[in-house]
Write a structure and sequence with these properties.
The chain has 14 helices and 11 strands. It is α/β, with parallel strands linked by helices. It starts with a helix and ends in a 5-residue tail after the last helix. The chain is globular, with a radius of gyration of 18 Å.
Length: 301
């Protein structure tokens, strides 16, 4: 996997953006315009969350609008999306766009599985089985072209063993350091980190909490945060300031960049930066400001 992974590592650079599909346009033209915009501002990668569907049309339209952008899913949910359809979609994108698409998959959370009538049991085993299905599909999805959502040690080990690497969500540089130790030097490590570009800490935390409250009831994240030293006190109500500050970088560009660089210093290859617009819309203005800071890196160090 070495040379392919290194090619991917070079292509994605140090920073890209993470966005929920719920904030993206739903029409083809709108998505193409986003792809073109990211090319224009020089951002090399966009990671699409919010459980993209197996047809991968969102990724297809984003890629069609751009010439350089890499698009990854972060993540497609293995409980809801048929691996045979996913593999066929990956083949379609590879034929059209070469290696500019990365399939990120993950086991998600119990509520998603239960909505489909499935029991959320042995999610890691289910993930292994899904990887087997991708391996044995009519058009297999190569290990170098896929990544895994991973928080705990076993999932991180699986990501290093069966894919290009890991896509940890809602973590800290301390988690990044531990993940790198678990996965070794070769696997890609792409943590997501949220950003609010507001100088007022109270206002910034309010924006962060509006997103974080969704995750405070999901055991996977609570368990991951406990491993990082957070306690039930941090999870009470809408989350402690300590938790919010750890998960959401806020302040001016310099303060935010300082926090993001901590992930790189801890062993991340690339940070999937998720700016949060105070009004909950697609953060185009924040993208442009951050893209300029990304271009100045590493000269600014």
């Amino acid at each position: 996997m070495g040379s392919m992974t290194n090619t991917l590592r070079t292509r994605i650079g140090s920073f890209g953006f993470w966005v929920s599909r719920k904030r993206l346009p739903t029409d083809e033209r709108g998505l193409r315009e986003i792809g073109a915009e990211l090319d224009d501002i020089g951002v090399p990668a966009l990671w699409v969350g919010g459980s993209p569907t197996a047809d991968l049309t969102i990724a297809e339209h984003l890629l069609a609008g751009s010439n350089r952008l890499l698009v990854g899913t972060s993540i497609l949910n293995i409980w809801t999306e048929d691996p045979a359809v996913v593999a066929a979609s990956c083949r379609r994108l590879a034929d059209a766009f070469g290696d500019r698409f990365v399939l990120g998959i993950g086991a998600g959370h119990a509520p998603t599985a239960e909505q489909t009538g499935q029991a959320y049991v042995r999610p890691l085993g289910r993930l292994r089985g899904y990887l087997d299905d991708l391996d044995h599909a009519e058009h297999p999805v190569r290990a170098e072209a896929r990544m895994l959502a991973a928080l705990g040690p076993k999932a991180l080990e699986l990501a290093a063993e069966r894919s290009a690497g890991a896509l940890p969500y809602l973590t800290t540089p301390e988690h990044t350091r531990e993940a790198r130790q678990i996965m070794g030097a070769e696997a890609l490590l792409v943590p997501e980190h949220k950003v609010v570009l507001l100088d007022d800490p109270g206002a910034a935390r309010a924006v962060g909490r509006s997103i974080l409250r969704t995750y405070l009831i999901l055991p996977n994240y609570l368990n991951s945060w406990r491993r990082l030293g957070f306690t039930d006190e941090d999870f009470a109500g809408e989350g402690s300031d300590r938790l919010v500050d750890a998960m959401v970088a806020h302040g001016d560009i310099d303060a935010v960049m300082t926090r993001l660089v901590e992930h790189l210093d801890a062993g991340a290859d690339h940070v999937a930066v998720q700016p949060l617009a105070p009004d909950g819309t697609l953060p185009l203005a924040q993208w442009r400001l951050l893209a300029a800071a990304f271009r100045d890196f590493p000269a600014a160090r």
